[in-house]
Design goal:
This protein has 117 residues and is mainly α. The chain is built from six helices and no strands.
């Protein structure tokens, strides 16, 4: 099974496994974290299937909005590191290179959008 199918099939399970690690010390509620993680896993699944449009739409819409709402780059990047590390931990090792490359490109684009918004 490919990564895209694996992510789509296991999205709820991945979110359930990842939330407890992110809740500790987070300024966000569990519900907000579930939404964030679920969205990130969805973006990864789409990208793994060759569709980068949801990632681009998300970054170009959500990042300027959260910045305008007062979220700091520090909080944003901590969340990014958390979800990236947890994805790497909970996904099959065969996908680690792809996950790393996705997270690097995602982070680079997130910072570009942040700087330009």
């Amino acid at each position: 099974m490919g990564l895209a199918e694996d992510l789509k099939r296991n999205q709820v399970s991945l979110v359930d496994q990842m939330v407890p690690y992110m809740v500790v010390g987070s300024p966000s509620s569990e519900s907000e974290l579930r939404q964030f993680i679920g969205g990130f896993v969805h973006l990864m699944a789409e990208a793994a299937g060759g569709n980068l449009l949801p990632r681009e739409d998300y970054l170009n819409t959500v990042i300027p909005a959260i910045k305008k709402a007062g979220m700091t780059l520090t909080v944003t990047m901590k969340g990014m590191v958390d979800v990236s590390m947890l994805c790497a931990a909970f996904l099959d090792r065969a996908h680690l290179t792809w996950v790393r490359q996705f997270c690097l490109a995602y982070t680079e684009e997130l910072l570009r959008v942040w700087d330009n918004s």
